[in-house]
Predict the structure.
Amino acid sequence: MPWLLTASLLLAAARTVPTPYPDHREHVWLADEPIRMLKPANVESWQVLDINGEVVAAGRDSVLNLGQLPVGWYEAVGVDGANTRVWRTGLAVITRLAVPTPLDSPIGLDVATSWFYSGADLQTVASQCALAGVNWVRDRLTWGELETAPGVWAANTRFDAPAKAMADAGLQNLQVFHSTPRWAAQRGHNRMGSDLRDVHRLMQTASQRWAGQTVAWESWNEADIEGFGGMTGSEMAAWQKASYWGLKAGGTDAIVGHNCLALWRTDIAVDLAQNESFAYADTFNFHHYSGTDAYADYYEKMGTAAGGRDLWVTEAGTRLLWAGDPAEKELDAATLIEQGRFVTQCLAASLAEGSRATFFFVMMNYAEGPVQFGITRADRSPRPGYVALAAAGRLLASARQLGRTDPAQRGDLRLHAFRARPDGRPATVLVAWSAGEEPEGLPDRIVPGAAYKPFGR
């Protein structure tokens, strides 16, 4: 498709095999690197635990010299003189990428960069994404901060540096917004405006401003639910058409994503189809937070509204409950493992149903009430979900679905087959797990050349 070639040309020169910063500010080490880190001054003694809670190192030294550790997730925990925990941070050990992440890889991550990162943290999170083999990242734009009055554009915004940081790291950036400036909000701040010339102007100007840095756009987020407007399908279609022509007027060949759906609603789908909104998009975008067994029916329905456009899942996640300190909103040990396993299952099941790009939600430590979504902690260090993402980024590079077990006949076995390029080499990659309490074996005719657990070991 022409848009894929355009994106590749924009970023081909920037993409290389990533390595961590020398100080490992990402809290990420490659498997062939020795781990050395400083403990905080208030820590009297420390332990390093693996994902199963087994102690792999302990001491009182100011420097943690851990040597090389196997691929996986680890946690450093420190106590003060009163034996009170005062330090807890995650460590990721991942496999070094053998080749740059291909530009057609479907692995994406919702980072919401502009809203949650600034300063030096921008380079850190961009490096974390690149090290994990992520191809696509998703940001957030606040329209009113960019266009402060009709046709009046802010010279410097919090959205400029993130776009540059992600592009400099060789990442392909998707931008989305879901609020209307007060001056254009005839129907409310969280609803699409009624003057379509406004969004046309925004799309034209913004695409030009970040040409070569932001290569894909969604012109609204989840307008089909009340929290983001509760718009009708006809209203969404009109907005899509104005956005499309604005982006085309920008002349940048940016990918035009359909303003994304939060869920399936027949009335919305009928409206979109009757207005042929798919003709004004390069990709048809939607979200889900369900278990993976629900994907087949859901994707089939979305495909009927897509008009043959590629399916992009720009938010795919799960709702897990945090426990303990409200300042940390941390997952307990069992739930951390559950999150990591779900990352693998979610990406594999999504791609197996035909998604051409799936963005896991979400990078940062982000909670809504009792639910924690993030694969990194409040201190920006990784959770096990990050390690699982890195395994998928490497092993499912350029993945395209070949098939999956028949839902009606598979029992507890979930098996998904892909043609992919792990480590730059063409291969058939199988992702399998048991949906029951007991392990499921692979069919006898399948003899894998290599096997990996969800966390890449």
Remarks:
- Residues 1-13 have pLDDT under 50 and may be disordered.
